[in-house]
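Practice problem: predict the structure.
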Amino acid sequence: MIVKLHLIFTLYSLCASVFKVAGTKSKAKGSQGQFPITQNVTVVEGGTANMTCRVDYNDNTSLQWSNPAQQTLFFGDKKALRDHRIELVRASSQELIIRISDVLLSDEGQYTCSLFTMPVKTTKAFLTVLGVPGRPDITGFTKPAMEGDVLTLTCTAPGSKPAANIRWFRNDKEVQGTKEVNATGKSFAVRSSLQFQVDRREDGVAYTCSVEHVSLPNPYMTTEVLEVHYAPHLEITHSLIIPQEGQYFKLECVSIGNPIPEPVLWSKDGGELPDIERMIVEGRELTITTLNKTDNGTYRCEASNHLGTSSAEYILFVYAKDFPWPTTDPNAFAQHGPDHALIGGVVAVVVFITLCLIIVLGRYLARHKGTYLTHEAKGAEDAPDADTAIINAEGNHVHAEEKKEYFI
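Answer:
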């Protein structure tokens, strides 16, 4: 009986061993047929990257992470490379997650996850590091710029990866610049230049450099406002269209220039203002409190800045109080003078018409040219011989008072 029980236990142990070996072989076969699963990672320079490697099932085989230089970072939960920026997040039979902090551009590359079966199975994961561009800087501004100068504005954005894009704006309108990209190690320095000639319309214009990059949620922008100095230009405006005796009259000297042309000097007919009691100067305005005929003349204002001097004139004609108002402004005509273009046009028309008449008359005379005959000549022409012609001619003297000339 004892022998029989021993035999049954031996058979049971043998069967258990067979089933255990079969299960182990099945797991090993499944483990050897799979590859680790990884994902590519993109991170901004200075940020944190999590590198994950996992398998669907594992039979106590180890996972390992290696860097682009094929240096082992972690073998299972064992740290192999001394780098304080790299730390373990999770390690199990089916997953290995590591974290890289304060990522550098030099960390970019292809990382390898290995599953230590027979043979070893590996999968690659690429770590992309974006280089954040530096804040843009605009150079080339001259403060102030002079009208006529040629300016070259340059905007620089260093340290981007990939290369950043630079755009220029004149106020709110985009303008095209010239782009230049230079590689500096693993990053790029981008420059864009904008060249133009300065005129007075550029005074107060804002030029903006905008830097766009995949690592930036919003573009970096910097703005400079252009200041332009230019020579003055003056004009005189007047308060009345038809100034009349006894009226209040004001002239204003409107000046355009940068710096503002000052002071404004008023004069009349090339000399000082003759009546300072009635002619009051306040800044750019000249006021005549009560107009009279003696105020007729040419008024002049003059102002200057460090770039030049300008002046403007106004011819004042004071009408009598009861003078009928004309339909046009006589002062405006006096300021601008006669219209030389109109006069020239009239003269040209007159000359043209005269030439046409001469040509027509000449053609008429040429077509009606004939023989000039008197009655005496006509009689001689009809005579058969010379003697008869002389007789006819003498006979015609009797009717001399009836002689007439005509054209045939």
